[in-house]
């Protein structure tokens, strides 16, 4: 009976595969490390800022990135105890709270708390049961930007995206919600509760001769704009500021007369964050004028939720000149949370539109 | 397997880690996805889920899903056919006319693309396709990018079958008066069929599920079932529908395999 020798071999091989499996587990956060989950290139990963923060607190910040908000939620759901600070669009925060993905923030640790604009800081999208589940960080608009070398007169209407003069030279983001909301604005509807979805669909299908290609990240947008693929492209206000300043692209952001999509982002602490103390310190640094003013001036940023920080910007900064203009703010429609069912309907409509665009 | 007991145990011991590994990394997630595909919602965050067939029914009742499944299959056919049309003659030339060092050098060149990341390769194609070809963001761009990615499979599997052909069979066919073309169609092609069929499945299956290359190279033409499934997971948070669509795709592949089985058995049996 060769059994004993074989069983040892078997045992060794089992041991080997067990060791290999355990190597797959995400490594526990190293001491003095802070893990941040955000879009790439969206402020928290500015190198100079992380150097300042490390000097102040001794904490080394490492990043993980997402390409869609659902990806962010999936990462939080499937990797508890990995992330400390997570960026969240306001419309997802209460979903994350009810799923137990985030923890309340101790406002005593946020020294800049009193300088944050109350309308954002105390919004019901962030505050529940008297607790702050997200700290308001920045806000901005989704609309479009144009190439100032290709279009010489500043467009004032969203219809420029459908203008045959720019056929085959339009950039669009491959995102169901944003597409439907922009088409709602273009057809004069309430973007959160559009009454006529057929008109929205027809409007989106009319983009067939217009779109050059879809973009999905700021990096892609910059690449396509630099390569001259786009005359005009859907974009975010903060990113437009960055493309102009940091990437030196000849672009300008437009808030058209039909209005723009408004959004505000918060910073949250993950429910099982390994370092909640460090997370609060990092959030406090992120909402401080010290970080924000340099971010907007050197790199380009959305508007700050910190009134003091906005006031310290130079008077010609886009975030003071355009987003600070009450006439502009009046035209903004604010993005509202939506249910899983609505999201599914949107996705289906958008997939149908994309199928039409391809034929 | 007609192996003596001792050897049988050894074979088991040697293959067990691989099977365990496959079970843990492939089979278990797949089972979880089968389970999800019959649920009304992902059961996380207090969502209540119940059993449903709705996602599988959607595939048949909603044109966007079966139409895009067809777009995926169509792409798979183009890429597989072109890869073989280019790869098979290359493999034939390699096995018949290239010898020694040169053969090694050429093999190295064929395998070289595998050493770079697929994403990097795709992005480098964007530069070539933009200028001078002016094909970027079109359907042909997707086909070119995917053919480049999968061509090595066509060459390598065809080559393995071709170099195993007994030289004396070809000499016999010549001495019996067959022309080059006759020798090719009656001796070489049938004997190399196992390699060609392996290439077809190695290329066709991943291509119909591809979403990265279409998205980067194809612009508006990128929409297929692969990107739609990706959207269900990353944008709509509808894992059940995404999973159901994936399994429908798997079912289509299995069905095609079953239809090809008689042909496969005949070809493999005769060699």
Keywords:
heterodimer, A: 359 residues, alpha/beta, 12-stranded mixed beta sheet, two-stranded antiparallel sheet, globular, B: 271 residues, mainly alpha, 78% helix, 0% strand
The level of helicity of chain A is: 40-55%
**What is the radius of gyration of chain B?**
23 Å
* Helix residue percentage of chain B: over 70%
* Percentage beta strand of chain B: under 5%
Oligomer category: heterodimer
Q: Describe the global form of chain A.
A: globular
Cα(first) to Cα(last) distance of chain A is 68 Å
> What is the number of strand segments of chain A?
14
Number of strands of chain B: 0
- Number of H- or I-type helical stretches of chain A: 15
Helix/strand/pairing class of chain B, anyone?
A: mainly alpha
Structural class, judged by helices and strands of chain A?
alpha/beta
Report mean pLDDT of chain B, rounded to a whole number: 90
Describe the protein in words:
In chain A, helix 6 (176-186) packs across helix 7 and helix 6 (176-186) packs across helix 15 (340-358). In chain A, 45% of the residues are buried. In chain A, strands 1, 2, 3, 4, 7, 8, 9, 10, 11, 12, 13 and 14 form a 12-stranded mixed sheet that branches. With 359 residues, chain A is an alpha/beta fold. Chain A is globular. Chain A is 42% helix and 19% strand. With 271 residues, chain B is mainly alpha-helical. Helix content of chain B is 78%, strand content 0%. Chain B has 12 helices and no strands. In chain B, helix 7 (167-175) runs antiparallel to helix 8 (180-191). Chain B is globular and about 75 Å long. At the A-B interface, helix 1, helix 3, strand 9 and helix 15 of A face helix 1, helix 3 and helix 11 of B.
